[in-house]
Amino acid sequence: MPKTAVTPTRMVLNQLKGRLRTATRGHKLLKDKRDEEMRQFMDIVRRNKVLREKVEQGLTEAFAAMSMASAVMSPKMLEQSLLYACRSASLDVTYKNIMSVNVPEYHFTTTGADEPGQGAALPYGFAQTSGELDDAIARLYEVFNDMLELAEVEKTMQLLAEDIEKTRRRVNALEYVMIPELQENIHYITMKLAENESSTKVRLMKVKDMVLQQAHDFH
Fold it and tell me: Is the domain covering 10-209 a CATH 3.30.450.180 domain?
């Protein structure tokens, strides 16, 4: 007996068969989508691991250089040296589509002085600052693009993980709830129709026998 009440007619049977075909196709498509999302997610996880190690290494070196600079410079001079910026920065965000998921792409641009380490004009004079400070700023600038890419990758991972979970729930709902229920209803209606058809045949045979008997008695 099905869990939901259904009318055992051929029209309902045909409707349920159509819904079952649609649900089966949808289940396959969602499974394919989930598998492809998982493949791309694992690629991004590997990229995230490489970037995180690179960023952590770059920040460690930058902080070490900054510690050296603070050891040879007075706190007041260090603060004054970093008080004014010699360049401005802007961040633009665009989006790309990965398996129907819009993920961000960050674009960082600077205006003003050249990059440190490439003949850049730093925001302080060289008379009262140390080379360690120059090195720290150069290293921070170098790691910044990796940090931006890491933020992009981690946001992509988060969005993909959320969509993978939604897709997994839909696949499970189709596989363990909707499709079995449709199959159960189709089986129930098919059995009912067969039972009704059998009963109809029995009645027709009885009517035929009665007609033949009446015809025989008449003659």
Answer: no
